[in-house]
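Continuing from the previous page of notes. For each protein in this section, the sequence appears first, followed by its structure tokens. Read the first protein now.
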Amino acid sequence: MASAVPVVVPRMKLGSQGLEVSAQGLGCMGMSCAYGERRPEPEMIALLHHAVAAGVTFLDTSDVYGPHTNEILVGKGLQGGVREKVELATKFGSALTDGQWEVRGDPPFVRAACEGSLARLGIDCIDLYYQHRIDNNVPVEITMGELKKLVEEGKVKYVGLSEASASTIRRAHAVHPITAIQLEWSLWSRDVEEDIIPTCRELGIGIVAYSPLGRGFLSSGSKLVDTLREDDFRKILPRFQPENMVKNAAIFEHVSEMAARKGCTPSQLALSWVHHQGNDVCPIPGTTKIENFNDNVRALSLRITPEEMAELESYAAMESIHGDRYASSIYTWKDSETPPLSSWKATT
């Protein structure tokens, strides 16, 4: 297995607007929701502090995680001088109305969401503020106009989008520079490589890869399904359904075989594959355990040859993945188009 020698976490420029972050971040969602049983708050704060001490200072949360509870947790972890050591990203875009979730990007909602996040996090400025999902009813230019105002007011430093199409990215970037796009990218989620990744690179936009370990699949394989609690979010995802997991199992088996040859864990190999996509890519694996965090950090020291990259990618070609990433009820970049700006002006 990989060496236990501590790894120095390098720094990187994320995008072309001046934001500098740790070359690997920490996704905080699972500390509060989505993946089953919540861990004790003191343990999660200890994990946050361990991450920052190790050099992983790019922390990712959202107002929808919980909802709200993850931002409150992260805010507690920032106390005692920790805030000054981290680059903090959070997101807006979802509202719970009459028991139903809806995506919103109208200016009053954007401003109220930002104020709410600032209060829960206990800070006066968000380093990177993403639109979590794109509102199909509001031109992205209108949403970006309000975000631009928040930057000018000093409440937000940098702006990002999550799960946005290439055309949405271009339209948004024309209003105010986009620093980063957050998207799902891993050995078993590669459809962004066709259009979105090239668009980001053309425009000088950083790439933040969430779920770089396939929500645990690239760490544990198909046996992961047997361990999921009934309230685990993955239970409803098409890719985690038994009929698809049986077909996807071969991917993990191939990754495991190569990892054994290289003397590392499958998760380290899969995470290193994301790191090797370029110096404009920052993966943000999440965990609730310090030992898993340490395992993920050691992926930074793993080297993969071009031949090994090609071999890995041959195991995980897009057409070999069975099941969609999300259920049809959840917006992704594939349905993120917004109305033209002219239509908004005509109706408001």
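Done with the first. The second protein uses the same format. Note its length before scrolling.
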Amino acid sequence: MQTSLHDLQTATKIRIEHAFQRYISDRGDSDLSSTALFKAVEYSLFNGGKRVRPLLISLVCEMLGAQEQDADTISLAIECIHAYSLVHDDLPAMDDDTLRRGKPTCHIKFDEATAILAGDALQTLAFEILSDAKLSEFANARRIMLVKELALASGLRGMCQGQSLDLQSTKKDISFESLKTLHTLKTGALLRASVRLAVLVCPNSNKDELATLSTFADNIGLAFQIQDDILDVVSDTETLGKPQGSDQDMEKNTFVSKLGLAGARKELAHHHHLALQALDRLPYNTDGLREFTDYMVTRTF
């Protein structure tokens, strides 16, 4: 019987937590658990979340026949980067948010200095994991490629650049193409990296499949952000787990502010179609990725 997307998502969340605890335990770092910094790191890494990126990694790895251990390692690294980005995004110097996933943000739960250090620690932990955690023989030979892929996605050419563009464009009018570029970097880069890291640990993958899945991920990244922008308008704080309407209050450029609600939904459908179209070119059973794609554009939080 095929595992449902919901069951796989639940199993993925559990595996990520186990992978983190196993990694800390294997290195004899159990004494860290009593420190304020460790508690802030753990709080930020496991403060809820949909685990969209590890789920995507699991689906690609399952489709291409990668080992579960490799999927868990790259998933944990990706989640460390994602968690660090959220901790820093929430800081007073950036979005100044007090709620994340319905709970106090890291700097509210602890303090601003601890939150900054927790983000720093999560970022470096991601690369420690990729360079040091257990991998299959095939994936182990590709460690430097994995590190490079994640570094490109998270730094000056990826997520950090997207966040910078977002901050610079707040309360300013930017073009639609500039908005797409911003979110291709800020939101899409880590989703693209998730797919590419998964392909890199799969012995049977090739360059054409990497390019096709990258196109798929690019469209999923934009669709994910468009749905976020729509939910910021039509949902509520309790459902979202963060203040509803915060983007509008901060005068951020969004797909809804640019296109209107109907136009944003049309753009969402467009990228949904392009993502599914990319999957049509793959010689595999893509049912899991198709269900994931549908989930990304219909989710309610």
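What the second structure shows: The beta strands are 99-100, 103-104. The longest helix spans residues 207-234. We return to this in next week's lecture.
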